[in-house]
């Protein structure tokens, strides 16, 4: 089966898998988005807040499963990226990791008896994870397009050229635009999830109002991000692996790969349609439509920056140190063996789907949360 694929085809196959997992993780971050809305939607009502936290608490582990899949696949298939980025942009990735650690701690200890810190502290942790964690992740992903300052020698040892270790990415408006766009996108999906998962008119009303505001903010920042993306020069490489600057590279990629461009447009349209149906038609199932839209949009962005002779992790310090799917992947044998392991991915996705279905059979109600036998996060 996979033995008939060339080395380049195996590299492309794994970039497609990583792009898909990246899109799925972006969708699962509705949990992070919902965490930033706890105070806004509950407005001090502890029962409503408990309903919201429990709605998210039943899904956060599925998001972690997807994150582990995404990170593991990226590390195994493209180890040079992992060593360069995680070893170089140290403080950004450590900040992201810290934000996800305190999320897990918060769900486990928020309602534990004799809680040393108190519920408010863990709710603050959840807000930090949903806001700062998502923003930093968006900034880190934006550097796939804008580039970073590193040098890789002939032994594949990487050397980061700034003492701020990745924090310099925060000074680039392009990176910040994607970080803010991602933050408000997950807030929108989080609100749609509440509408779909919780049977409460007050939560539904406040979630709809939140979507109205967040959608406007999202569009302002995302459209500006797209404008800067399509008008900027990109990092291309030729058949010999020589990296050079190409004008309008990322726009050209969508035009030269119309199938990926179509996926990107369809994804954006699905998100817009899901928001319209939620706000104007008062539908409660739009998290599914919006989720598919998020997956397709993010997947298309990853494919854009990895295919068509494009460096997916460019170096603005030394162009020839830029990483591509061809010069940063594992060996052909490694990719071949992993390709058979990747056949397990559909089973993991099936598990996530099944677990989701079982947990969402019955919507969360106030009576369930306030009952004596309730297990609350």
TrEMBL record:
GO terms under biological process: aerobic electron transport chain
GO molecular function, one term: metal ion binding
The keyword Protease is annotated on this UniProt entry: no
Family: Belongs to the cytochrome ubiquinol oxidase subunit 2 family.
Highest taxon of source: Bacteria
Gene: cydB
Tagged with keyword Metal-binding: yes
Localization (cell): Cell membrane
Main location: membrane
Protein name: Cytochrome d ubiquinol oxidase subunit II
GO cellular component annotations of the record: cytochrome complex; plasma membrane
Bilayer disposition of the protein: Multi-pass membrane protein
